[in-house]
Structure formats: C-alpha cells, structure tokens
Amino acid sequence: MTQETTALGHSTAVRVSTDGRSQSGDRVHSAARAAADSVPVIRTGPTGITAATPLVMITSSGRTVFYGDPSPATVRDLVEELEEGTVPTADADAVVEHDPEAASLPVPESGPLSVGRRDVLGPCGWVAPLEPADWSFVSTAQTPDAAAEAGLLGRGRGDAATDEPVANAWETASKTDGDPVVVCNANDASDLPTGDDTLLSGAPMAVLDGIAAVAEYVDAGDAVVYVNESRTDLYADLREAIDAAADILPIVPQLVAGPDEFRASEPTAALEALEGADRTEPRLQPPSPAKRGLYSRPTVIHTPRTFAHVQRAVAEPESFDADAADPGTRIVTVTGDVDDPATVELGSSGSLATAHGAVEMDGAFKMACVGGVLGGITRNLDVAPTAQSLRAAGLGTDGVVELFDTDRCAVETVGQRARFAAKENSGRCVPGREGTKQLAELLRDIYQGSFESEKIRELGRVMRQSSNCQIGAHAPRPVTTAIDEFEPEFRAHTDGRCPSGTCTEKL
C-alpha cells in the first residue's frame, strides 16, 4: 500500500515513531506491506524516549497499543491482526484509552513515556511531522501576545534571551530603527541537549509556527532557521517541512547551515556565522542582538525550544501561569551513564529527580552534571526545573541532566570539561582565552600534589564577572560545584589516591 502522510483524522491507524535510523524505516515498510488500503500507516517523528525507538502505536477508536522496538516480523503480525478486526494487545508495553480526536500522544500510566508531561512535546511521535494538515497554525491569525504577557523566558544556551523574558527582546527589536529579522538558532555541536532536535524532528510545524508568530509580533519581513551543517538529515527534513508549509505561514524562513563548532551556537557567534565571517566568535555586548544583530538589523534570536513554547502559549494561553517565575515547562535531556538517553518535559512545580525515572543507569548513582557540558555538579536532584531554582543551586539551565555512576571520578570529570573549555573558547576575551587555560592547569596540578581551592574559586569569580563569552563565564561552574560536593575527593588526589579508582595511571 501507499504510506499515509497524515496521522490525525484516522480512527484506526498504525503509527511508527522513528528517529531517522535505517532500522526504524524497516518497521515502517513492514507495516505498510502488511496493511491493506483500509489501515493507514504513518511514519511519525521521535517521542524523545530512545529506548522505545522505533515505537509502533496501533490506534483504533480511542485506544492505542504501544510496542517498543518490535522486530519487522512482529510488526507484520500486529498489522495483520489489526486487518482482521482485532486490536492486538498481547505482549504490549502499554494500552491507553484516550479521546479519539487526541492531537497529542496518549501517555501510558507507567514507563519512560509517563515521566513528566507532554505539553510542548505532545505532538512528537503522534503527528506526521512534515504534514501541515496535522497542525493548527496560530501565526496566520494571532501574534504571541499571550506569550509576552505570560512572561515566557528564553530556553537553551543558543537563545539571546536565555532565562530572561522574551518579550523584552521583542519590544526592543520592534522599537529599534531598521527592518527586524527573526532567527531560530538550532545549531548546537554538543550532542548532550537533544530537546531542540526532538522538536525539529517530531514537531517542526510547531517551531515554524512559533517563528512566524514572533515575526508578526515584531513586524519582521524575514526569518532564518540556522542548523548545524553536519546534520544533513535534519536539514533535509526541515527543508521539506518549510516547503510544505510555505503556502500557509505568513513568514517563510530561510534555511541556513552553519559550522559544526561548539562556539558557533552562542547567539552572537551564530550571527557572525550567518554573515559568513571568517572566524566564528561572540560579539561584544552591548548592543544586544535586538538592537544590532544580523547585518546590523534588529534581531530576535531564540532556540527551537523557545519558539515551540511561544506557539503553545498562543494556542493555549490558559496553560501558562503569568504569576509563575518561570512560566511553562522545561524540556530536559537525561543522559550520561545510562542505557539509553531520554528527553522529557517537566513542569515548573516538579523536580529534576523525576527525570531519572525515564532512564536505566549502568550503575549506582553518584552525581549529576546539570546544564550541559559546562553545567553544575550535584548529588541532589531534588531541584525544581526553573531558571531561578537551577541558578540558586549553582546549576545550568541548558536542559541537560547527565547522570554519573560510582565509577566516575569527580576530579577527572571536571578536568575533562575544563580542558574542553580551554580548547573550544573563541579566544576573544582574556578570561575566556587565558582563564580557561589557568583553570585546566590548576586541575592538573592536583595530580602533582597541589590543590589550591581558594585560587580556583577566585579565578572562577573573575571569569564569571568579566568574560565576554559563555564558555569563559561558565567554565568554572563544573569545577567549583564539584569542589563543593566532593572536596575530600580532590584532596585525596593530592595524596596520590583516587577514591573511585579511575585515575590510577595519573597518580
């Protein structure tokens, strides 16, 4: 049969949620070959739960049966049983009763998919990602007043309004002389945060709709989606999504690929890359991008996570609490010493500890790094996933929780991150260029018997206050928070002993 392109509107359907891998396609083809014309087979995007990918969902009249990573032969058997008029439930991972008109993935009572919420992530894995017919666009009739009034904060390292009210940047851009432009910064060379990729692969129409809504708000005539040049599969899917929605969206963004470099996702470095600069490095601020951005135009630059939240705030303003310090939800990737990483969505009243339930760890939990490669080290995940709570705990807000088991050495873990910062910084400012080198050297000295805790903390304070780039400002965070949690482990290394036994060759 011919594979369907729309997922909604069918009372009976077979959905195959994939992440683009070839084995995922095998399940789609197996289902399509076994199905008759009466049973549509739809390939949907990722749900965010890697362990259950590919995920086959068989829906009939408000009942969906979930099968995680079934073999192609099993998929054929399941579809053939459905063809015979029976919804197969034997050996299913979950069975969920739901509204037959559901536009969001039905959530099982247990298992990784049940962790957290599925608000912004709701369409991921359920709708056909490249089909506009599966999406109700808000940008054609509404501007994001609700998102502005709700006090939505920017999300992710690549956002020019990270943890700040996005409406401030919108107002500045709209009132500054010049023609405003909107940029969706989806270029992240780090493989740790996968929330943006999940949205772009699973619900690209939500992101495009959010971009167009913001463009309408600031009266921008142009928009750009900036992706990593190494992500050729994502680029192709986004090209198809943009083309498919071109006749619907009031603003059709350009799609541009940028360097596969960690620094290239910093907001102002992204603008440099988009302008074709020979060297990708952050700009000195002020002025902010909202005043002087892409080609000196007023520029609003957000991540896909932010634009997807904007879209939801416009579509369902009642789901945002304007009195909350951090309205909406946070999308978090759980990774590290786990069998399979997972991307989940947490409410502001929840806890990061909830995210632990979406994965299986290789060993016993020792510590976590929260906030990306330069996040904060902690032993306590009982922290609300809001910008304010994370910052108060000395943690990062980039939407990553790395779980580490007892085989990990705190000194080695933060030493690797300090070396990363020393290598990946742009060299634009002294704290970023020289401070990161000094930090890495001070950590190497520990293995030679010298642990200068106060010197490390003072260096970190100076770097945080005077760095022009995010790398220089955030590089001390893993080190200082690890010292707070594991100072005895640092001192043990000066005596030639690694408590975890992983640094034997260095001591």
Characterize the structure shown:
- This protein is α/β, with parallel strands linked by helices.
- The model has no long low-confidence stretch (mean pLDDT 92).
- It has helices spanning 22-34, 72-83, 145-150, 166-175, 195-202, 204-218, 232-245, 267-274, 304-315, 387-392, 410-424, 430-446, 453-466, 470-474, 476-494, and strands at residues 12-17, 41-44, 55-60, 63-68, 94-97, 181-186, 222-228, 254-258, 299-302, 329-336, 342-347, 365-370, 376-378, 400-405.
- The radius of gyration is 23 Å and the shape is globular.
- Strand 1, helix 1 (22-34) and strand 2 (41-44) form a beta-alpha-beta unit.
- It has four domains: 12-111, Glutaredoxin; 145-318, 3-Layer(aba) Sandwich (Rossmann fold), CATH 3.40.50; 329-405, Roll (Ubiquitin-like (UB roll)); 410-506, NADH-ubiquinone oxidoreductase 51kDa subunit, iron-sulphur binding domain (de novo design (two linked rop proteins)), CATH 1.20.1440.230.
- The longest helix has 19 residues, at 476-494.
- The strands form three sheets. Strands 2-1-3-4-5 form a five-stranded mixed sheet, with helices on one face.
- 34% of the residues lie in helices and 15% in strands.
- Helix 11 (410-424) runs antiparallel to helix 12 (430-446) and helix 11 (410-424) crosses helix 15.
- Keywords: 4Fe-4S, Iron, Iron-sulfur, Metal-binding.
- GO terms for molecular function: 4 iron, 4 sulfur cluster binding; metal ion binding.
- Residues 411-456 form the NADH-ubiquinone oxidoreductase 51kDa subunit iron-sulphur binding domain.
